[in-house]
Amino acid sequence: MAEAQNIPAGSTTAGSIAVAAESTVATRMSAPPSFDVADFPVPHGREEEWRFTPLERLRGLHDGTAVASGEGVRVDVEAPEGVTVETVGRDDARLGKAGTPVDRVAAQAYTSFEKASVVTVAKEAVLTEPIRIAVHGQGGVAFGHQVIELGAFAEAVVVIDHTGDAVLAANVDYVLGDGAKLTVVSVQDWDEKAVHVAQHNALIGRDASFKSVVVTFGGDVVRIHPRVTYAAPGGEAELFGLYFTDAGQHQEHRLLVTHNVPHCKSNVAYKGALQGQNAHAVWIGDVLIEAAAEGTDTYELNRNLVLTDGARVDSVPNLEIETGEIAGAGHASATGRFDDEQLFYLMSRGIPEAEARRLVVRGFFAELVQQIGLPDVQERLLAKIEAELEASV
C-alpha cells in the first residue's frame, strides 16, 4: 500500500569546549502547553527553551511571519499489508492525542496544517517489513502533522526520511496501545539550506515498548523536540540519537521524558560529532519523575566528539525527582576532542591517519547505528559518516 500526500505551500563556552549544566529550569516552559499559537508569546531568545536557538535563521517560523508557500513538502508512505494509511482533515479525533504543543513553533504547525497523514497498525498485527515515510522538501514553507498509531500488541518499525529543501514545522504523534512495540527511525538528511523544527510526541500504553532513533546530518537549522509520556504502568522508552554537525550548521535536540505513572523505564543515549567553523550542536535532556511515578528506572547520556577547532557544543542534562521511591535514576554528559592516543595507537600499526580517524569515529557511533536494526539504513548512514569525514580531510 502506498500513498502520496502534498502538504500545500499553505550560557555557553566558546570554541570547541562544551558546557554541561544541571538544572530543573528546562522542564518549566515559558508558557503552558496549548494547541493555540496565540497562547505563546513570540520568543526573543532569552527564554530557557529558546536561548540556544538562532531565531533569526528560523525563517519566520517562530514569529508568525512564515506562511505556507511554494510546493511545500511531498509525503510518500509505503506500508505492508495490514496497515491503514489515511489523509485526514483537521477535525479528525486522532490528531493531538499523544501530546500538546509546548512552544510557539509547534503550535504554529498545529494551527497551520491543512491535511494530516494517519498510519494505523491493527491490533495484534506483527509487521515483517518496515513502514517507510519519505518527506521530501520541494521548496517554500510547509506545516505538517503525522500520526503513527499501533493497536494493542501490534509490532512495527517505521522509517521517516527527510530530504530536499524546505522550511518545515511539524508535529509527529506516536500512540502505542497496551503491549505494543514500535521502533521509529527519523533521519534528517536535508539539503544545506533547509530549516526543520519538529515536536515528536510518544504516548506509551501499558507494558508497551517504544524505541526512537533520531539521526541528523543535513539542514541549516534542525531543532527536534522528542517527548515521552506514559498512559499506564509498565511502559518502556529508549531514545537514541546520532548527529554529525558541519561548519555553520545548528542542530538541536531537546528531549523530555515525563514519568507520570508507576513502574516505567526510560533510557536515553545521544552521540554527536562536530567539525568546522561555527558548527553548533545543542542537546537538552530532561527527565521529570512525578510524585505518582514510584518504581521509575531511568538514565540519560550525551557524548560529543569535537573533531576540529571552531565547533561548539551545549549539553544540558536535567533530572527532576518528586518521589524517593524509585528503582534508579542518573545522567551523564561528556564532550572531548579527538583522542590522540587512539589515533597514535592505530597509526603505530601502519594505518594511515585519515583511515585511523574514520575508524575512531565509526567506533564512536557504532553502538547507536546498530540500534536501527535495518541493514540498508545502517549502511546508508555509515556511508554518510564516511562522506562527512572525507570532507574534513
UniProtKB/TrEMBL annotation:
Which Gene Ontology BP terms does the record give? iron-sulfur cluster assembly
What InterPro entries does this protein map onto?
Fe-S_cluster_assembly_SufBD, SUF_FeS_clus_asmbl_SufBD_core, SUF_FeS_clus_asmbl_SufBD_sf, SUF_FeS_clus_asmbl_SufD
**What domain of life does the UniProt record list for this protein's source?**
Bacteria
The SUF system FeS cluster assembly SufBD core domain sits at: 137-364
Any Pfam family hit: SUFBD_core
User: In which family does this protein belong, per the annotation?
Assistant: Belongs to the iron-sulfur cluster assembly SufBD family.
Q: What is the name attached to this protein's record?
A: SUF system FeS cluster assembly SufBD core domain-containing protein
